[in-house]
Amino acid sequence: MRALTSPRVWTAGMLAAGLAIAGCGSDSPTAPPGIQPQIANLPDDFSYQITSVTNYSGTALYTWQNTGIAANVNQATTVTLGTITLQITDAGGTQVYSRSLSDNGTFLTGNGTTGNWHLRVTYTGASGTVNFRVQKKT
Questions:
Q1: How many domains does the chain have?
Q2: Is residue 18 domain-resident?
Q3: In a domain, 7, yes or no
Q4: Which of 23, 60, 70, 132 is 20 to 30 Å from the Cα of 117, by its Cα?
Q5: Burial of 17 (C-beta count, 10 Å sphere; 0-12/13-18/19+)
Q6: 78-89 and 115-136: which strand pairing?
């Protein structure tokens, strides 16, 4: 005797399997526990925002594609406790930028190698709001 399977059960099972597979292998960065950043990571344009972080310590690492040799960094962060720093290294691993995110304004990185640049955001007992943007210098 052959078991009959309802088309709805089969469809639901295939949909669940498809969603599970689609979630595997994602190369988008995962936020460290304790913070929920909103990130737009596009070639030549990276933006990062957190509306509220409270007494957090940790590091977040991101890879960003810069087709230029330098970038403008716009910082608009309010640090009410602790420290938050941004470090940027170029595709060759050379540090081209390091600054406290409590320094608001627009700043220029040093010249570096075109390609995948790395952004490191380091929180030390930090509270506040975080907002910065990195764009290829034109």
A1: 1
A2: no
A3: no
A4: 23
A5: exposed
A6: antiparallel
Question: For residue 68, which amino acid is it?
Answer: G
The residue type found at 117 is: W
Q: How far is CA 44 from CA 19, 107, 129, 138, in A?
A: 31, 16, 24, 10
Residues 98 and 48: beta-carbon distance below 8 Å: no
- Helix (H) or strand (E) holding 127, with range, is strand 115-136
SS (H, E, C) 49-99: EEEEEEEEEEEEEEEEEECCCCEEEEECCEEEEEEEEEEEECCCCCEEEEE
Domain carrying residue 41? 36-136
- Spatial separation of the C-alpha atoms in residues 86 and 125, rounded to whole Å: 15
* Average pLDDT across the chain, whole number: 84
